[in-house]
User: Which sequence fits this backbone?
């Protein structure tokens, strides 16, 4: 069961259906509530409507980049305290630094290990 | 295509190829956990095939990215000081399950006075990991793998403005299948696998040793192998202990 916050709300923003489905199944198994968005615009909307406890944000989205999405989130006082985690296939050291500078709370690289994934997410929950 | 657009192209392709792997690895592993019901032996066997093939593909992509970065000269070293014995322990820890499964004994022998070194820690760990993986892969059940370290004092090269300095030597020796003399230099080239008929049993990308050599070269070191077919192999590398040119 959820290590820290049972029932915490997690927003997964990823355009790849199977990535969302896998993350959702794993997180729901731990007792989290999962919301999904398929693009940056929908991600921002759902964040404003539902005020999730954490946002997992893919970096390469069809409409805008993850870096553009976080810029919008950080400018909005209603949602800017929500930790945003880069959910990314880029695991080059230099790229990860760029994400931290942009305001991401951290990153989870894809492909991720399903055994440690829920704990990795829990780590970012306040 | 110029170097920049080629870099971007390969990096994009590699990223795109990794996307479906997240689902392949994740869902097969999830099924293997059997949380949705018990599987029979054959089903488990097939799922393991899917999962390990996915893992091989992921290694190949990561290795390919490393290699392209060397080629474009985009790899930079982040030097830091860290204790060598600890790095060796950590590298051995990461292959612990694998050696146990293969029933191979793994021995560590640190030379007298071996302590803190200066290198790019992440890349140094990669070197150790590639050499250990290679040794374990080509050693049969019941065999031995031994990793040893020592500090060497070497005279400066002729005409070198630097004083004699300390070198780190790390050796990974195994009792595996060994390498014929004619293959000993070639194994450091891209995609070279010794016996194409046998490489079926020893799955790998054929890039591990090539990457290892590049990483050693970046540290201004040198790597070599001594081996006798069917007796075993001994890979050694040396790098300067303190980077006195930086």
Assistant:
């Amino acid at each position: 069961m959820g290590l820290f916050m049972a029932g915490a709300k997690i927003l997964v923003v990823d355009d790849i259906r199977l990535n969302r489905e896998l993350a959702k199944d794993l997180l729901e198994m731990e007792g989290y509530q999962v919301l999904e968005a398929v693009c940056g615009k929908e991600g921002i909307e759902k964040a404003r409507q539902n005020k999730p406890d954490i946002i997992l944000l893919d970096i390469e989205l069809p409409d805008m980049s993850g870096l553009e999405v976080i810029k919008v989130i950080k400018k909005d006082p209603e949602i800017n305290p929500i930790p945003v985690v880069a959910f990314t296939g880029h695991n080059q050291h230099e790229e990860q630094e760029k994400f931290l500078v942009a305001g991401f709370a951290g990153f989870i690289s894809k492909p991720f290990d399903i055994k440690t994934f829920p704990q990795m997410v829990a780590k970012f929950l306040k | 295509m110029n170097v920049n657009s080629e870099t971007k192209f390969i990096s994009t392709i590699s990223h795109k190829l990794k996307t479906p792997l997240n689902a392949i690895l994740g869902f097969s592993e999830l099924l293997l956990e059997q949380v949705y019901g018990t599987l029979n032996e054959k089903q488990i066997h097939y799922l393991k095939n899917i999962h390990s093939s996915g893992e091989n593909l992921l290694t190949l992509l990561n290795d390919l990215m490393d290699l392209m970065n060397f080629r474009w000269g985009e790899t930079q070293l982040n030097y830091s000081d860290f204790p060598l014995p600890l790095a060796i322990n950590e590298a051995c820890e990461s292959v612990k399950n694998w050696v146990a499964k293969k029933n191979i004994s793994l021995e560590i022998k640190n030379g007298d006075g071996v302590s803190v070194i200066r290198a790019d820690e992440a890349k140094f760990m990669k070197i150790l990991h590639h050499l250990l993986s290679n040794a374990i892969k080509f050693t049969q059940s019941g065999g031995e793998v031994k990793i040893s370290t020592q500090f060497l004092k070497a005279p400066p090269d002729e005409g070198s403005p630097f004083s004699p300095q300390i070198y780190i030597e790390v050796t990974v020796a195994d009792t595996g299948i060994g390498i014929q003399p004619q293959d000993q230099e070639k194994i450091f080239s891209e995609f070279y696998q010794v016996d194409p008929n046998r490489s079926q049993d020893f799955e790998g990308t054929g890039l591990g040793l090539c990457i290892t050599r590049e990483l050693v070269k970046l540290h201004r070191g040198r790597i070599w192998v001594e081996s006798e077919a069917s007796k075993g192999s001994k890979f050694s590398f040396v790098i300067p202990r303190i980077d006195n040119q930086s």
